[in-house]
Amino acid sequence: MKKILTLLLLGVTLSVTAQTAREEIRKNPYLAGSNYVDYNRQIPEFQYTKAPKGYVPFYFTHYGRHGSRWLIGKDDYNRVLRPLQKGRKYGKLTQEGERVLNELEKFNITTYKRLGELTTVGERQHHGIGSRIAKNFPEIFLSKNVAIDARSTVVIRCILSMEAECEELMAANPTARIHNDVSEAFQYYLNQEWEGKVKESSGHVNRRQVAEFNDRNTHPERLMKVLFNDPQWTADSIHQRTLMRQLFEMVINMQSHDGAPTSLINIFTEDERYDLWRQNNVGWYLRYANSPMTDNNMPFSQFNLLTNIIETADTCVALGKPQATMRFGHEVCVMPLACLMELGNCNVSVEDLDDLDKYWQNYKIFPMGCNIQLIFYKPEKGEGDILVKALLNEREVTLPVEQATATPYYYKWSDLRQYWTNKLNKFKE
User: Fold this and answer.
1) Does 8 have pLDDT greater than 90?
2) How far apart are CA 272 and CA 32, in angstroms?
3) What is the greatest pairwise CA distance in the chain?
4) 133 within 8 A of 46, measured Cβ to Cβ
5) How far apart are CA 346 and CA 390, in angstroms?
6) Is the pLDDT of residue 412 over 90?
7) Mean pLDDT across the stretch 208-212?
8) What pLDDT is stored for residue 18 in this prediction?
9) Is the dihedral of CA 398, 403, 406, 409 positive or negative?
C-alpha cells in the first residue's frame, strides 16, 4: 500500500495534517530536535478506542528506543566550543557570544566520559512508559505470574532503559516473572547490520541535492552577528553554516539533561529552528524511510526484527495466556521498522523535498524513548479471531490491512501477519 502524494493510487489520497509542523514547533520549540526530542514533552492523552465487545488483551509485543542521552561523537561538544573560543582569543565575541560560550563550557564539564550514555531524563522517560504500559493493559501486566521476556542490545543506554521499564512493571505486579537478557546473539535482529541485499538494493542519497536543500535553508547571518562583533573576521575565520548547525545540535539536545541551559534554544529564532529541523527531517527521510527519490529499501534493514516479531507472536498467541515480549534498541531501527510495518503515515512517499514537512514529521516517529507496541486481543469467552492494535509512541495508529470490525484500530492478526509475511517474502525473492 504505497502512498504517493503526486498520484491517486488504489483510491488513496493524502491530506495535510490539521496543524502544520511549523505551528507545532512554534508552540513546542523542542520538537525541532528531531531524534533528540524528550519523549516526555509530547506524552499523548490516553483515550484509547475500546476493544470490540467481548475482547480482552492477552499478549504485548514491543520494540523501544533507549531514552535521552549525551551526544555520541567524540567531538560533538568540542567542535562547537573551538570556534567560539577562537573568537574569545581574538576579542571577536559579543557580550552575548561570551554568555553563550560560558554556558556551554560549564555544561561541557558534565560530558566527561559520558558520551552516548543514558541521562536521568532518559531514565525517567522509561519509568513513565513502563508505568503507563502496566496501567493501560492491566489484563496482561497485572495478571498473576505474567511472563515478561525483555531483551536489549549490548549498548549500556539500552540496557538501563530496559531496566527502568521493567522496574515499573515489577512495582505494579510483584508476581511478574521478568527475564532480562543482553547478548551479542540477539544483535542480528535487535540492531541488524545493513548488509547484503538491503545495502546492495538501497538507492544512494543524492548528496548534492541534499547539500543544496540544506544551504537554501541555512541562514547564519543573523546568528553570527549575535555571537561575533566583527563581520569580516567572522567571514574569514568561521565556517558559519557548519557552526550554526553544530551549535543547534548541541543546544537542542540540552532537553536531554536536568539542569542544563535549555534556554539557549532562544538564541535561534522561530524561523531558524524550523529551517534547521527541516534539514534533519529531509536527511532522516532520505536515509531511512520510503523515499521515492532514492528508491530506498532501508525499511527492509529491519527484516530480521519484523520477522522476529511475527514468529515470536505466533508462539505466544498459541499459548493464549497473558505475557509480553519487550525489545530495546535504537532510533535507526524504530524509524525504518515503523515504515516497514506501515504504521499510520510513516511509509508515505513524497516526491518534493520542499513539501516533506507537510506530510511527514520525524519527531512523531523517533523521539528519545520512542516505541512501537502491538497489543493482541482474544474473545474473553469462546473462540474467535485474534485481533491486534498498534501504538506508535503510545498513540493509536492505522495498519495496512482492512479493519476487522467497525471499531477503529483493531485488525485481524491473520490478515496483518499475511500482509507482512508477503511483503518480506517478496523482498527476499
Assistant:
1) no
2) 10
3) 80
4) no
5) 13
6) yes
7) 86
8) 53
9) negative
Contact 42, 392 (CB under 8 A): no
Alpha-carbon distance 250 to 36, whole Å? 10
Residue ranges per structural domain of the chain: 21-69+116-204+295-428, 78-114+206-284
Q: How high is the pLDDT of residue 227?
A: 98
pLDDT of 114 higher than 70: yes
pLDDT classification of 293: cutoffs 50, 70, 90: confident
Specify the amino acid at residue 106. K
Parallel, antiparallel, or unpaired for β 55-65 and 323-329? parallel
**Eight-state DSSP code of residue 184:** G
In this structure, are strands 387-392 and 371-379 parallel, antiparallel, or unpaired?
antiparallel
User: Which CA distances in Å does 133 have to 36, 168, 174?
Assistant: 23, 9, 15
Q: Which three cell numbers stand for residue 260?
A: 542544563
Burial class (CB in 10 A: 0-12, 13-18, 19+), 172: middle
CATH code reported for the domain at 21-69+116-204+295-428: 3.40.50.1240
Confidence of residue 197 (pLDDT cuts 50, 70, 90): low
Could you write out the DSSP letters of every residue in 90-147?
TT-B-HHHHHHHHHHHHHHGGGTT-TTPBPHHHHHHHHHHHHHHHHH-HHHHTSTT-E
Distances in whole angstroms, Cα of residue 393 to Cα of each of 86, 116, 132, 236: 42, 22, 12, 45
Residue 11 confidence class, pLDDT cut points 50, 70, 90? very low
CA 415 to chain centre: 27
